[in-house]
Amino acid sequence: MEIPPGxxxxxxxxxxxxxxxxxxxxxGLGLQPDANLFEALMAAYGEPQRHYHSLQHLRECLxxxxxxxxxxxxxxxxEIALWFHDAVYDVRGTANERQSADWAVRxxxxxxASRPTQNRVEQLIMATRHDAAPVDSDERLLVDIDLSxxxxxxxxxxxxxxxxxxxxSWVPEAIYVMKRKAVLSSFLARSSIYSTPHFYGRxxxxxxxxxxxxx
Length: 215
Known about the structure:
The chain has 215 residues and is an all-alpha fold.
């Protein structure tokens, strides 16, 4: 429909990827979230201590998900898990994933989600601890999305590396370098960094090149 000049009809802007994803995930579940939850999560990802685990990271994850959502067994649960996987991020904390999963479960309970959905979303978020191999196809997909930054183009990977250092600015340089190398080396030691054909084919080789520079 063409809007005539001088019309009082407001121009309708397209939804951001955040709004689009949020609406799609909850609609897919057939649920209505708390009215303030979207703003609460956006504020959480915008907290000042975050340099990498921020709205930029969430947006990158959602962009990747849009490209592979048809590969998910329960796409709406994977998408909700992406929203909550870094919802709590204390740079000195050791239970961020646990607290993020708990927040997700509370939100799903408030929306009357089924117990199986609550359990699957909880497990998806806990899989982003990256301390064990993902169990099922949705976990593999979500973990690969979360690790997609390792296979980013060199400029973005260098930015990511700087963002991680900024988040751990309180750690002395020598200790940080030692710990960081240990983490990155552990990914290189895996037979494959990515466990889905989509991410393996597109990012495995580049991820290994990126990591080799730092590890």
